[in-house]
Design brief:
60s Ribosomal Protein L30, Chain: A, alpha+beta, 5-stranded mixed β-sheet, 12 strands
Amino acid sequence: MKKIWNIITLVIFLCSIFTVIGSAQESIVNNYPEVEPLINFVGEDYLSVLHLLGAKASIIAMNELGFEKNNRNVLALTDAGYMAEIGEYTTEKALDGVISTTGNSQGKGNLINVHKPYNAKLWFAFFDKESGDCIYLEANGEVLKTYLNRERTDVGALADFMELADNEIFTRIAKENIGADQLLSNPEPWQEKMNAKVFGGNEFSMITLCNIWAEGLSNDFLKVAELHDHICPGLTSGYLIAEYVKKELPSPNPRNEYTIISIPPWCKDDAFIQIFETNVGHKRLFVKWLTTEQKKKLPEEAKNVANIFIREDKKTGTGEGIVVAFDWDKAYQLCGNVSRKDLKAFDTHRWWYMRLKMDLFMMDYLDQPEELITTLKEFTMDLEEVDRLKSAGVNPLVELGIMEDDVKAEIETEEVSADPGVIYALVLIILLLVAVGYYMKKK
């Protein structure tokens, strides 16, 4: 009897173990089959709330925009994984949720990982270039933090997260048509939405990134746009300058051979960081500002000066360089219906209207940058002289003879200028001498 009882006890014990193991191993896919592609991609043992967040955003977008996986006409955008953080948690895992669910990827050219600062809101957006519709989703950081804390010790955190309603996971879900034709033909309504921040303050990023992507962007331009977080004429001018320099001053290893002096700086310089890897930290990009007064003193042909590129040769100890200018006046004229004053017309739609219009226009010049860019000067100098151009307190445009030396001009002015009293005294002395001479002659 005792043996029988021991056997029964052992059977009950083993059954309970198998029951626990079976429930622990039950896949989340059983209740949520929509995340199966994600599970296959990352593995269930590594699954996180952030993976599920990316999948959730993607599923909402696919339903709202009506597209299926691997649709090349749809662009996905997010700041997940670039710098955006949720408390102590980085957010790169959310990217896997987007990639595995939608099939979008950087390799396919339809995923843009937008650069935002570490404390930016975590967001996702999806754009259909056929319809012009865009859906924007902004994650609820506090809710995410709660479930990320739970998933460390609670195996039920993932399933509970999947049970949350969409408006609990996302603080903002907005769908708008941002097709370029519609925005440019009827800009006032979008200006109201811009002011209302329907995309959480990312409206300009969305309308430029999405519409220029729809025109067709190379991977290197996409990487430039990711860093800059939007596309504007200034950024495109940098891409064009880079293409121009590749032809006019080619280098097999630009990171180690180019010295770039930005004078004056604008959005263009982010393009050089991505394309040439000439970062400030690599001591290859130097920024020199020009004051308003200095800009006025530039000769007419140098009014649009942009950059100095120097290709250094350590073997010969010399540097070959070019000073380049971007012809903004010509760009405005060719684009039509835009002007320089629109750049700061922030109280109307003109500020974004002209940027979007010029973005689209300048796409036609990606393979012919010489139409808008000229070389102001070619030069060769010793590397010691190159170091001087880079140094603090030195205006390289003066050193290269592009503009007049302000200090020298002031000194020369001071040298030829005299106190009016001194001049009067000299005149009186001269007159007195003349009178004395005349008097002596009479005697």
